[in-house]
Amino acid sequence: MSIRNGFKKQNYIKVSLLKLAIFLGVIFLSACLNSSGSTENKEKDKHISFLYNFSTNSLDPHVDSSYVPLRAGITETLVRLDEENLTIAPWLAESWEGEDGLHWTLHLRQDVTFHNGKKMDAEAVKASLDRALQESVAIQNALKIEAIEAEGYTLKISLKQVFPEFISELVNPNVSIIDVTEKDIINQPIGTGPFALESFTPGSKLEVKRYDEYWDGASNLDSVTFAFNEDANARTLALKSGQVDIVYRPEVESLESLRAQEGIKVESTSTFRVHQMTMNMERKSLQDVNVRRAVDALIDRQKIVDTILLGYGEPAVGPFLPSLPFVPSYEKSESKTAVKYLEDAGYSLVDGKMQKDGEPLTFTLLTYSARADLPLIAQVFQSDAKRIGIDVEIRQIDTPEEYMASNRDWDLATYSNLTAPRGDAGYYLNATYHPTGALNFSGAEEPELTAIIDQLNRTVSQEDRAALAEQAADYVHNNVINSFVLHPSTIVAYDDNKVKNWVTTRSEYYMISNELDVK
Amino acid sequence: MLQIITRKFFEVVVFVLFITFVSFLFVRMAPGDPVLTILNVDELSVSQEQVEALREDMGFNKPLLVQYGLWLVNFIQLDFGLSYATGQPVLDMILMGLPATIELSVGALVVMLLISIPLGSLSALYRNSWIDQISRVLSILGAAIPSFWLGLIFIDLFGARLNILPTMGRDGLISLILPSLTLGLAISSVYVRLLRSSLLDSLSQEFIRAAKARGLSEMRIFFAHAFRHSLPPVITVFGVSLGSLIGGVVVIEVLFAYPGIGKMVVDAIRQRDYPLIQGYILIMAIIVFLVNTCVDISYRYLNPEMKLKERETN
Fold first, then answer.
1. Most exposed residue of A71, A414, B18, B51, measured as fewest CB within 10 angstroms of its CB?
2. Model pTM?
3. What ipTM goes with this model?
4. Nearest chain B CA: its distance from A5 CA (Å)
5. B231 min Cα distance to partner chain A (Å)
6. What strands lie across the sheet with A348-350, from one edge to the other?
7. Least CB–CB distance from B93: residue in A35, A57, A436
8. CA–CA gap between residue B183 and residue B119 (Å, rounded)
């Protein structure tokens, strides 16, 4: 290569690189200018940015299982869950009656309007309920509605069968009341909530603005951004950078660093969810209640809460959150060690293995990764069991419901369940302990328990229902049909210098409310 | 030409039938049950009877071949069905998510080109020099660093610390910078090395020596002859890896909350939303097919030998 050509080439390359650098620089600069412009606009009005941990492509309130329209304050339901007492409270419906559990009358508020200004009367609510029933088989099953009659502000609903928890089922966000005469319900639902939808970018975010005519007092905020990000680390960083004000479920491992940052507050509250150890009662060893008690005694709940959930959970005694009105007092029975229970069941330690009639006690434990805590709980259990001479084989599965229902070659399974999502025990008890329930993976067929649940299904009075639910929970506890590990917490972190009146709810239904404000 | 088009069309039909059939079988045979998702068993009381009734109602109890046939009949009428999860038409959902994913892929490609062409060319021109060594180290690093980690570093740096770039959502070109950079850096490492070795190969060819003998300038030889000659292998690898590029977008889409189709289909797989999965596979297959056809055509222009050979055979 000649010297001259070498020079030429180097010059050419230098110029090219310079051009590239200028090009990138311009892009970068324009990016910076744009971003500062958009933040300025936002700061003029009272605005809150909320970052949620799921995303949705549809805002159809009757179908969308991420419940974003309700959570973002766009829609409301006829009744709601009173977060303090965990009982059913009036919302769009003022009062209701239905002594026989079959025919229900609901009296609606008369001062409610949809975001398009239309009155929310019984006719509109009927149309909304009809659409929910038509769009969702799940809602059809859940509500069991036969016919609806609308008159003024009164709704008369007759059901296909006696269904005492009908009112509590109306808490379901998929039974939100919307104006169904609007065309684009998937992208532009019109509800009655404190905020009206302004724009929606599927899978990314929605912008809502205050609805001035809101029946329960218009919000002080002008607007709210409700954005989605499914990556916990990215959510945490978004709060740290000040791009958002409230973050739902930040990364647990980074909470310490969030706390250390001035002005950030981290809140947590136990949810209606329970992580449980499902026991397959069709297996020979587990048919003995003492073996089930031994499994229960082997679970070191406090250690699991402290090490796996870093303290963000509550050790569980029964399936229901202790603050619910129908939770038994769980009188302390004599607590023995797992080894003692196994000795009662006829097992003894031979050559380091727990055995009965020469047969070692082993368990096949199912777990799945969709809930990250569960495989870790399985591992803790495995190592604790090993210590007293029980071999536990952990089997990772994909789809727990399907696997557990169609395969019976397992003994134990870590599973996670919502136990009273709408403030009533009926759902969980029916699904999990009734022989016909779709989540009855333990194969429980206990005539006494079934009778209690059947009676619960016929009982309308709230006090009587609570007493029956308590009886059922007691039965489950005494007979150790499934063992309950913990109630995980919901964690929310927010900018305490800015956000006012944020409430972390246990139901996780209500997020953006008319009370939410800036300081 | 007409013959080529007819042949290609026939190829597409066979290809689509094969892909849809195989994917239909795989998706249906994988464990999981959409009925449980549709009935929302995690939150609503459902009896086994209701589960069975819905399964029957949705035709899941019919033989697989019959189910495929029914799907095919609808597909021929361009009806991809409704998503189980959202109730929306599958085609609408795909067309809604596709632009974002294409944007992201194109952004990543631009970054990839901006990095790999200068770096690959320089390391070939100055073989074994310091610049070559640096590019080697960078390529190894690029291949070794997981893209989600790199993405988090970018979010931390440009979002949390400098606060100059948005770290999530899709608000114009500016929000495309960080995700494209993350994805582009990850894929460029392969192409830097590939372009370098392909260039070195071209530079040692007879025609380069001939060009030099004719007194052409170094730059002209490099860009008009060597560079052009080194492109076919790079483009071939690109055509083949396009599918995995679009697949690799998923991680970036989740991290930057970029509402593309990758994220959508991962959710669909989790929820066993068969119509959406099936629609996605089909659309992707068509895109990959089209790109590969373009790659085939580009050979004719990049490599004069092929034209010559065609002429000879004719």
1. B18
2. 0.83
3. 0.81
4. 6
5. 20
6. A348-350, A353-356, A359-360
7. A57
8. 17
